[in-house]
Amino acid sequence: xxxxxxxxxxxxxxxxxxxxxxxxxxxxxxxxxxxxxxxxxxxxxxxxxxxxxxxxxxxxxxxxxxxxxxxxxxxxxxxxxxxxxxxxxxxxxxxxxxxxxxxxxxxxxxxxxxxxxxxxxxxxxxxxxxxxxxxxxxxxxxxxxxxxxxxxxxxxxxxxxxxxxxxxxxxxxxxxxxxxxxxxxxxxxxxxxxxxxxxxxxxxxxxxxxxxxxxxxxxxxxxxxxxxxxxxxxxxxxxxxxxxxxxxxxxxxxxxxxxxxxxxxxxxxxxxxxxxxxxxxxxxxxxxxxxxxxxxxxxxxxxxxx
Length: 306
Hints:
Blueprint: E1 2-6, H1 13-24, E2 28-32, E3 37-40, E4 47-50, E5 53-54, E6 60-63, H2 71-84, E7 87-88, H3 92-99, H4 101-110, E8 118-121, H5 127-133, E9 139-143, E10 152-155, H6 158-170, E11 175-179, E12 187-194, E13 197-205, E14 220-223, H7 228-240, E15 245-253, E16 256-263, H8 269-275, H9 279-297
Parallel strand pairs: 1-2, 1-6, 6-7
Antiparallel strand pairs: 3-4, 4-5, 8-11, 9-10, 9-11, 12-13, 12-15, 13-14, 15-16
């Protein structure tokens, strides 16, 4: 197969691992910075352009679109590849939905996936209203635009919560207010879902003095055997977001596992190092299966020359 990896940086661990795993299975790989792509929108011959030429057809693409200001453009490039007929590991619409924290929580809620109590606000005259909504302090306040633990604040007291909310309002920012799960004790679970199955899971622990377990912020990780219920919740969350591949972040509460976030471009470094599972190979194997199925269902579609 001919596979395109859409990545801002070819030296990133995840990008390198996808390339290695695909080439080990005999596939041809091209790594392209999606922000350097542009599109030719034509009725009978849509194209994705890069460096002055059309990229041509691919059997599949692996989007590594960050949840940032670039996400909308990245998803548009993915959509153009889909129009040409390439199989996308995660669909463009699913990437957009998962990159929107509020929209993703609304979709999860609609599918009855258990979440921490959450409120959404922009401009509040009575700040105590949203504080009461999630059960009072301590609580967590999150900027919608943050990622990897940035823009996430723990407010221990009502006065601290009001001060943080006021600061976010001064920035004219939208934010989420979420209950703090004290019994989690600074730990959460990253379950890696591929094709409707949890292929690996790890427990992440926050560094001393912090409640955020993100590995980019000094957290540590270890292999974890999750429960059947946690596995089912992770799979349901990925399905609700229509993601073939997802990093589902769970937290253990007294009332059961709760979903914190669903990531459409989860990193491979932490999960592979913590668990020893070759997640990259499992994803390439999944792509092979889906491309074969699509060709069987659409025999008129010509296979891209290997």
